[in-house]
Amino acid sequence: QVTLRESGPALVKPTQTLTLTCTFSGFSLNTSGMCVSWIRQPPGKALEWLALIDWDDDKYYSTSLKTRLTISKDTSKNQVVLTMTNMDPVDTATYYCARPYASSCQGIDSWGRGTLVTVSS
Amino acid sequence: QSVLTQPPSVSAAPGQKVTISCSGSSSNIGNNYVYWYQQLPGTAPKVLIYDNHKRPSGIPDRFSGSKSGTSATLGITGLQTGDEADYYCGTWDSSLSAGVFGTGTKVTVL
Questions:
Q1: Which of A42, B6, B80, B110 is the most buried (most CB within 10 A)?
Q2: What is the mean pLDDT of residues A12-32?
Q3: CA B85 to chain CA centroid, nearest Å
Q4: How many inter-chain contacts (A to B, CB under 8 Å) are there?
């Protein structure tokens, strides 16, 4: 059974850096074809894809947020970390960790429950 | 910011059928698989359709997906009150080298 759980601060101040951790089980990022993505959703708004890391440590980012995002993995801990710099109130959203379908790394077959991050002074 | 366009809302009476369109381009829908997600209020999204038209185990055949060119469609037949949710399409964009989602469609059962 695949599970993913997001953890991190619920509140960050403007200009601070957000660090979110995804801890997963039921699969390994050492396995060829496996990937993990981050997706966010501002309150009442649509889903927004943020970043993806694959088993081979290839990384992909949203073009509009690329300069602010860094995704990394720690396969020994079954964790993926997303950092977002220079946080702004518009970055207030629920942040989801998710597992794309294997081999293609496209689509999402498993989602975490999400963690709400509020950006406010 | 969404690359894929969906109608904001669709509605129908219980038992009826609704379709939700998802319009993209050759760099995304035109050359990649399309996925459809259902998001019930206050919950994380759940995949309904993968690889354009396939249903994961546990998803009833009332839900169907299709793709033609640079557009995709989600169909829901035998509409139930439990189907009231937001629905999103998603795919990969080969030009952006990034995932993309649709603008989302709210389904209301009248």
A1: B6
A2: 96
A3: 11
A4: 67
Q: What is the CA radius of gyration of chain B?
A: 13
Q: Is the dihedral of CA A57, B33, B95, A37 positive or negative?
A: negative
Look at A46 and B33 and tell me if their CB atoms are within 8 Å. no
Phi-psi region of B15 (alpha: psi -120 to 50; beta: other; left: phi over 0): left
Secondary structure (3-state) at B24? coil
Six-digit token string for A41: 């959703």
Q: Which of B44, B92, B104 sits opposite A46 (nearest CB)?
A: B104
**Distances in Å between the alpha carbon of B46 and those of A45, B21, B49, B82?**
17, 18, 9, 14
List the single residue in A61, A104, A113 with the smallest CB-CB distance to B33. Answer: A104
Chain A partners within 8 Å of B8 (Cβ): none
- Per-residue pLDDT reduced to its tens digit, B25-74: 999 999 999 999 999 999 999 999 999 999 999 999 999 999 999 999 99
List the structure tokens of B19: 């379709």
Alpha-carbon gap, residue A40 to A37, rounded angstroms: 10
Which chain A residues are within 8 Å of B91, Cβ to Cβ? 106-107
Give A28 to chain B, closest Cα distance, Å: 21
CB of B110 within 8 Å of a chain A CB? The answer is no
Compute the distance between CA of residue A55 and CA of residue B29 in angstroms, rounded to an integer: 25
